[in-house]
Design goal:
By secondary structure, this protein is of the alpha/beta class. 36% of the residues lie in helices and 22% in strands. The chain is built from 11 helices and 13 strands. The longest helix has 18 residues.
Length: 334
């Protein structure tokens, strides 16, 4: 029998478990920024996929996380699951597909650190997760169930996503949604917009970037009317990230903005995921911050710092910050 201390720690971890659902893939990032894919002479192999980045961010910040998704039964797939384990992420929801490959993405880094994607998924293993393969027990143990929209693009993964979300909601688990718009993966812009919005009102909290607000509302992301068109009764928190400018927050009772941090940006990949991971760690520990503006602002300051630090080196998971690094940036101020 485990000593009481360990048992209590395990119980606490389970009580604040965040399960991330969706895709994990290999990003090939050019070793020189500012070149097209054709011009690039070499690429650095980096693990990626927003839900997996979030799971690793949570774990690196001392939280409890698990990943639920499917990988090719290939060297890349096994490498990715090993990376999850090395980063302290529970991998009991990970499956392998014998007949499909692990997804790949080639990422073009522009000179300002922004990026474009070219994907190889036809179909990749993550798209082939079925409802019958879901680890529902893992989902039901969570405090928060986190997901994106890429898992909504194709069957059978779409049905698996909807079933997982239904199981989470039925169990009273908080649902967290970061759409992570990746237009090249959708059949059309309209399909992306309607697909992303099709599950909008299932979430308890949503994080979108300013670019995603502009895409979803087809209006100016700086116009609060457009942002508030994404609000619905029952939503606990809507966050809009504004890049290095920081973020805006909206709840039923209050709204405001928290400034970002100026850093030497090299690669923005994973910055939003570091931000989300930090937010989810804190919500999992104390969801009263939906009703306490002072607490929420402190958490968002820390989350902004996590996002900023993540842009200072290449790749997402290797660049995820520690608590100490984020606290140091917060203490320096903007």
């Amino acid at each position: 029998m485990a000593p009481l201390g360990e048992g209590a720690a395990a119980a606490a971890a389970s009580a604040s478990l965040v399960v991330s659902f969706g895709e994990m893939l290999i990003d090939f990032v050019p070793d020189v920024a500012g070149l097209s894919l054709a011009e690039s002479g070499g690429f650095v192999k980096a693990p990626g996929g927003a839900p997996a980045n979030v799971a690793c961010a949570i774990s690196k910040l001392g939280g409890s996380s698990a990943f639920l998704g499917k990988f090719g039964d290939d060297e890349f797939g096994h490498m990715l699951v090993d990376i999850l384990k090395q980063n302290g992420v529970n991998s009991e929801g990970c499956l392998y597909d014998q007949h499909a490959r692990t997804a790949l993405a080639f990422v073009t880094l522009k000179r300002n650190g922004e990026r474009e994607f070219m994907f190889y998924r036809n179909p990749s293993a993550d798209m082939l997760l079925t409802e019958a393969e879901l680890n529902l027990d893992l989902i039901r143990r969570a405090k928060i169930f986190h997901y994106g929209s890429i898992s909504l693009i194709a069957e059978p993964c779409r049905s698996a996503h909807l079933a997982a979300m239904r199981a989470a909601k039925d169990a009273g688990i908080l649902c967290s949604y970061d759409p992570n718009v990746r237009l090249p993966l959708w059949p059309s812009e309209e399909a992306a917009r309607s697909g992303i919005l099709s599950i909008w009102k299932e979430a308890d909290f949503i994080k979108v970037s300013d670019d995603e607000v502009a895409f979803l509302t087809q209006g100016d992301a700086n116009d609060e009317k457009n942002v508030l068109s994404l609000w619905f009764d029952g939503l606990k928190l809507l966050i809009v990230t504004d890049g290095d400018k920081g973020c805006r927050y909206f709840t039923k009772d209050f709204k405001g903005s928290v400034p970002g941090y100026k850093v030497n940006t090299i690669d923005t990949t994973g910055a939003g995921d570091a931000f989300v991971g930090s937010l989810l760690v804190n919500v999992a520990k104390d969801d009263s911050l939906f009703h306490n503006e002072e607490k929420l602002r402190e958490v968002l300051k820390f989350s902004n710092a996590c996002g900023a630090i993540c842009t200072t080196q290449k790749g997402a998971i290797p660049a995820l910050p520690t608590i100490a690094a984020a606290q140091e940036l917060v203490s320096k101020g903007n």
